[in-house]
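Lecture notes, unit on protein representations.

Consider one protein chain, 287 amino acids long.
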Amino acid sequence: MNKKISSALISVFYKDGLENIIRQLHQLGVTIYSTGGTQKFIEELQVPCIPVEALTTYPSILGGRVKTLHPSVFGGILGKREDAQHVAEMKQYNIPEIDLVIVDLYPFEETVASTNDEALIIEKIDIGGPSMIRGAAKNHKDVIVVAAKKDYSLLEEILTSQNGETSLEQRKMFAIKAFDVCTGYDMAISNYFNNTQFINPFNKTKSVLRYGENPHQQGVFYGNLNELFTQLNGKELSYNNLVDVDAAMQLCTEFLMKQMRCLLLLNIQMFVALQSEKLFWMHGKRL
Protein backbone atom coordinates (compact mmCIF):
# COMPACT_ATOMS: atom_id res chain seq x y z
CA MET A 1 0.00 0.00 0.00
CA ASN A 2 1.34 3.41 -0.99
CA LYS A 3 1.69 6.11 1.65
CA LYS A 4 2.03 9.83 1.09
CA ILE A 5 4.74 11.57 3.09
CA SER A 6 3.14 14.51 4.88
CA SER A 7 5.59 14.98 7.75
CA ALA A 8 9.24 14.25 8.41
CA LEU A 9 11.57 14.17 11.38
CA ILE A 10 15.17 14.93 10.42
CA SER A 11 18.05 14.81 12.89
CA VAL A 12 21.47 13.91 11.52
CA PHE A 13 25.14 14.27 12.39
CA TYR A 14 26.28 14.36 8.76
CA LYS A 15 24.53 17.05 6.71
CA ASP A 16 26.29 16.50 3.36
CA GLY A 17 23.93 15.26 0.67
CA LEU A 18 20.85 16.37 2.59
CA GLU A 19 20.13 19.70 0.91
CA ASN A 20 18.30 18.34 -2.16
CA ILE A 21 16.07 16.16 0.00
CA ILE A 22 15.17 19.12 2.24
CA ARG A 23 14.22 21.19 -0.78
CA GLN A 24 12.21 18.36 -2.30
CA LEU A 25 10.28 17.80 0.91
CA HIS A 26 9.53 21.52 1.09
CA GLN A 27 8.27 21.56 -2.50
CA LEU A 28 6.01 18.62 -1.66
CA GLY A 29 4.51 20.52 1.25
CA VAL A 30 5.93 18.19 3.89
CA THR A 31 6.01 19.45 7.48
CA ILE A 32 9.55 19.11 8.82
CA TYR A 33 10.51 18.63 12.46
CA SER A 34 14.13 18.82 13.50
CA THR A 35 16.67 19.31 16.27
CA GLY A 36 19.82 21.29 17.04
CA GLY A 37 22.36 21.57 14.26
CA THR A 38 20.06 19.96 11.69
CA GLN A 39 17.35 22.50 12.46
CA LYS A 40 19.85 25.30 11.94
CA PHE A 41 21.01 23.74 8.65
CA ILE A 42 17.42 23.53 7.37
CA GLU A 43 16.59 27.09 8.39
CA GLU A 44 19.70 28.36 6.61
CA LEU A 45 18.22 26.86 3.44
CA GLN A 46 15.23 29.15 3.98
CA VAL A 47 12.99 26.13 4.56
CA PRO A 48 10.42 26.26 7.39
CA CYS A 49 11.18 23.86 10.22
CA ILE A 50 9.45 23.08 13.52
CA PRO A 51 11.81 22.43 16.43
CA VAL A 52 11.22 19.15 18.25
CA GLU A 53 10.98 21.19 21.46
CA ALA A 54 7.67 22.53 20.16
CA LEU A 55 6.34 18.94 20.34
CA THR A 56 7.92 17.88 23.60
CA THR A 57 7.60 21.26 25.40
CA TYR A 58 11.04 20.45 26.81
CA PRO A 59 14.36 21.93 25.70
CA SER A 60 17.37 19.78 24.92
CA ILE A 61 18.67 18.86 28.37
CA LEU A 62 21.58 17.09 30.08
CA GLY A 63 24.10 18.42 27.60
CA GLY A 64 22.08 17.15 24.64
CA ARG A 65 21.69 13.63 26.01
CA VAL A 66 17.90 14.04 26.08
CA LYS A 67 16.23 15.71 23.11
CA THR A 68 13.84 13.37 21.35
CA LEU A 69 13.11 10.75 24.03
CA HIS A 70 9.50 11.78 24.52
CA PRO A 71 6.03 10.29 23.77
CA SER A 72 5.21 13.18 21.43
CA VAL A 73 8.08 12.09 19.18
CA PHE A 74 7.93 8.32 19.57
CA GLY A 75 4.15 8.26 19.51
CA GLY A 76 4.25 9.94 16.11
CA ILE A 77 6.74 7.37 14.86
CA LEU A 78 5.23 4.23 16.40
CA GLY A 79 1.53 5.02 16.14
CA LYS A 80 -0.31 2.60 13.84
CA ARG A 81 -2.45 4.60 11.44
CA GLU A 82 -5.09 1.88 11.06
CA ASP A 83 -5.45 1.17 14.78
CA ALA A 84 -8.44 3.08 16.15
CA GLN A 85 -7.05 3.16 19.68
CA HIS A 86 -3.68 4.46 18.49
CA VAL A 87 -5.35 7.16 16.40
CA ALA A 88 -7.60 8.21 19.28
CA GLU A 89 -4.72 8.42 21.75
CA MET A 90 -2.55 10.39 19.33
CA LYS A 91 -5.42 12.84 18.90
CA GLN A 92 -6.01 13.01 22.66
CA TYR A 93 -2.39 13.88 23.40
CA ASN A 94 -1.82 16.06 20.31
CA ILE A 95 0.77 13.72 18.83
CA PRO A 96 1.37 14.38 15.12
CA GLU A 97 1.96 11.52 12.72
CA ILE A 98 5.55 11.27 11.46
CA ASP A 99 5.78 9.61 8.04
CA LEU A 100 9.50 9.94 7.31
CA VAL A 101 12.41 9.62 9.71
CA ILE A 102 15.89 10.65 8.54
CA VAL A 103 18.29 9.97 11.38
CA ASP A 104 21.91 8.87 11.46
CA LEU A 105 24.10 7.97 14.42
CA TYR A 106 26.90 9.64 16.34
CA PRO A 107 30.30 8.69 14.86
CA PHE A 108 31.26 6.19 17.53
CA GLU A 109 33.78 4.17 15.49
CA GLU A 110 35.45 7.31 14.18
CA THR A 111 35.80 8.64 17.72
CA VAL A 112 37.32 5.38 18.96
CA ALA A 113 39.81 5.52 16.08
CA SER A 114 40.81 9.11 16.83
CA THR A 115 41.13 9.23 20.62
CA ASN A 116 41.71 7.22 23.78
CA ASP A 117 39.66 9.65 25.88
CA GLU A 118 37.00 7.38 27.36
CA ALA A 119 34.73 10.28 28.29
CA LEU A 120 34.60 11.48 24.67
CA ILE A 121 34.02 7.95 23.43
CA ILE A 122 31.17 7.35 25.88
CA GLU A 123 29.46 10.56 24.78
CA LYS A 124 29.41 9.23 21.21
CA ILE A 125 27.20 6.29 22.21
CA ASP A 126 23.96 7.36 20.59
CA ILE A 127 20.72 6.68 22.46
CA GLY A 128 17.93 8.65 20.80
CA GLY A 129 19.15 7.94 17.26
CA PRO A 130 18.98 4.13 17.41
CA SER A 131 15.66 4.36 19.26
CA MET A 132 14.06 6.49 16.55
CA ILE A 133 15.55 4.36 13.79
CA ARG A 134 14.32 1.11 15.34
CA GLY A 135 10.91 2.59 16.06
CA ALA A 136 10.46 3.79 12.49
CA ALA A 137 11.74 0.49 11.08
CA LYS A 138 9.37 -1.46 13.32
CA ASN A 139 6.47 0.64 12.07
CA HIS A 140 7.50 0.45 8.41
CA LYS A 141 3.94 -0.32 7.44
CA ASP A 142 3.33 3.40 7.93
CA VAL A 143 6.76 5.03 8.19
CA ILE A 144 9.83 5.16 5.97
CA VAL A 145 13.22 5.47 7.67
CA VAL A 146 16.59 6.48 6.23
CA ALA A 147 19.45 5.70 8.60
CA ALA A 148 22.55 6.35 6.49
CA LYS A 149 23.59 9.09 4.07
CA LYS A 150 24.53 6.49 1.46
CA ASP A 151 20.77 5.98 0.98
CA TYR A 152 19.94 9.66 0.45
CA SER A 153 20.15 9.32 -3.32
CA LEU A 154 17.64 6.46 -3.33
CA LEU A 155 15.21 8.47 -1.21
CA GLU A 156 15.71 11.46 -3.49
CA GLU A 157 14.86 9.33 -6.51
CA ILE A 158 11.69 8.03 -4.84
CA LEU A 159 10.56 11.51 -3.84
CA THR A 160 11.02 12.71 -7.41
CA SER A 161 9.56 9.77 -9.33
CA GLN A 162 6.67 9.01 -6.98
CA ASN A 163 5.74 12.53 -5.94
CA GLY A 164 6.37 11.90 -2.25
CA GLU A 165 4.68 8.51 -2.05
CA THR A 166 6.33 5.26 -0.93
CA SER A 167 5.29 1.64 -1.37
CA LEU A 168 5.26 -0.95 1.39
CA GLU A 169 8.06 -2.82 -0.38
CA GLN A 170 10.22 0.31 -0.37
CA ARG A 171 9.50 1.04 3.28
CA LYS A 172 10.38 -2.54 4.21
CA MET A 173 13.62 -2.33 2.22
CA PHE A 174 14.64 0.80 4.10
CA ALA A 175 13.62 -0.82 7.40
CA ILE A 176 15.98 -3.74 6.75
CA LYS A 177 18.79 -1.30 6.00
CA ALA A 178 17.99 0.55 9.23
CA PHE A 179 18.13 -2.58 11.38
CA ASP A 180 21.47 -3.42 9.75
CA VAL A 181 22.80 0.02 10.71
CA CYS A 182 21.73 -0.42 14.32
CA THR A 183 23.20 -3.91 14.50
CA GLY A 184 26.55 -2.72 13.17
CA TYR A 185 26.56 0.21 15.59
CA ASP A 186 25.91 -2.03 18.60
CA MET A 187 28.63 -4.38 17.38
CA ALA A 188 31.12 -1.50 17.33
CA ILE A 189 30.21 -0.53 20.89
CA SER A 190 30.52 -4.13 22.04
CA ASN A 191 33.93 -4.39 20.35
CA TYR A 192 35.11 -1.34 22.26
CA PHE A 193 34.05 -2.56 25.69
CA ASN A 194 35.14 -6.15 25.11
CA ASN A 195 38.36 -5.19 23.33
CA THR A 196 37.38 -7.39 20.40
CA GLN A 197 37.54 -6.82 16.66
CA PHE A 198 34.51 -8.57 15.24
CA ILE A 199 33.94 -7.38 11.68
CA ASN A 200 30.69 -5.62 10.89
CA PRO A 201 29.36 -7.42 7.79
CA PHE A 202 26.79 -4.71 7.16
CA ASN A 203 29.48 -2.24 6.13
CA LYS A 204 30.40 -4.48 3.21
CA THR A 205 28.88 -5.13 -0.18
CA LYS A 206 26.38 -7.97 0.08
CA SER A 207 25.77 -10.51 -2.68
CA VAL A 208 22.92 -12.99 -2.57
CA LEU A 209 24.22 -16.37 -3.73
CA ARG A 210 22.39 -18.88 -5.89
CA TYR A 211 21.62 -20.97 -2.81
CA GLY A 212 23.08 -21.88 0.58
CA GLU A 213 24.58 -25.12 1.84
CA ASN A 214 21.44 -26.86 0.58
CA PRO A 215 19.22 -25.83 -2.35
CA HIS A 216 16.33 -24.77 -0.10
CA GLN A 217 18.56 -22.40 1.91
CA GLN A 218 19.68 -18.86 1.10
CA GLY A 219 23.33 -17.93 1.02
CA VAL A 220 24.82 -14.45 1.32
CA PHE A 221 28.41 -13.36 0.68
CA TYR A 222 29.67 -10.19 2.35
CA GLY A 223 32.30 -8.55 0.21
CA ASN A 224 32.83 -7.82 -3.48
CA LEU A 225 32.96 -11.07 -5.44
CA ASN A 226 34.14 -9.25 -8.56
CA GLU A 227 37.25 -8.05 -6.74
CA LEU A 228 38.11 -11.59 -5.63
CA PHE A 229 37.24 -13.77 -8.59
CA THR A 230 37.01 -13.76 -12.35
CA GLN A 231 34.28 -16.21 -13.24
CA LEU A 232 35.01 -17.64 -16.68
CA ASN A 233 31.73 -19.46 -17.22
CA GLY A 234 28.93 -21.36 -15.55
CA LYS A 235 26.06 -20.42 -13.30
CA GLU A 236 26.03 -17.82 -10.55
CA LEU A 237 28.05 -18.92 -7.53
CA SER A 238 26.49 -20.77 -4.64
CA TYR A 239 27.60 -21.10 -1.03
CA ASN A 240 29.12 -24.52 -1.77
CA ASN A 241 31.08 -23.13 -4.71
CA LEU A 242 32.77 -20.65 -2.39
CA VAL A 243 33.46 -23.33 0.21
CA ASP A 244 35.10 -25.41 -2.52
CA VAL A 245 37.23 -22.47 -3.64
CA ASP A 246 38.31 -21.91 -0.04
CA ALA A 247 39.23 -25.61 0.28
CA ALA A 248 41.22 -25.44 -2.95
CA MET A 249 43.19 -22.42 -1.74
CA GLN A 250 43.97 -24.10 1.56
CA LEU A 251 45.17 -27.21 -0.30
CA CYS A 252 47.34 -25.11 -2.56
CA THR A 253 48.91 -23.51 0.50
CA GLU A 254 49.44 -26.88 2.17
CA PHE A 255 51.08 -28.48 -0.87
CA LEU A 256 53.03 -25.40 -1.95
CA MET A 257 56.28 -26.75 -0.53
CA LYS A 258 55.64 -30.19 -2.03
CA GLN A 259 55.80 -29.04 -5.65
CA MET A 260 52.18 -29.78 -6.45
CA ARG A 261 51.66 -29.62 -10.19
CA CYS A 262 47.88 -29.84 -10.46
CA LEU A 263 44.78 -29.77 -8.26
CA LEU A 264 41.50 -31.34 -9.39
CA LEU A 265 38.64 -30.39 -7.08
CA LEU A 266 35.14 -31.70 -7.67
CA ASN A 267 33.88 -30.63 -4.26
CA ILE A 268 35.18 -30.33 -0.74
CA GLN A 269 34.94 -34.09 -0.22
CA MET A 270 36.53 -35.24 -3.48
CA PHE A 271 39.82 -33.93 -4.73
CA VAL A 272 43.03 -35.12 -6.33
CA ALA A 273 46.38 -33.41 -5.81
CA LEU A 274 49.03 -34.38 -8.35
CA GLN A 275 52.74 -34.07 -7.70
CA SER A 276 54.10 -35.99 -10.69
CA GLU A 277 55.91 -34.36 -13.56
CA LYS A 278 53.88 -36.64 -15.86
CA LEU A 279 50.59 -34.88 -15.36
CA PHE A 280 48.53 -36.64 -18.01
CA TRP A 281 49.66 -40.13 -16.99
CA MET A 282 49.00 -39.44 -13.29
CA HIS A 283 45.65 -37.83 -14.13
CA GLY A 284 44.49 -41.00 -15.88
CA LYS A 285 45.88 -43.32 -13.26
CA ARG A 286 44.44 -41.49 -10.26
CA LEU A 287 40.98 -41.05 -11.68
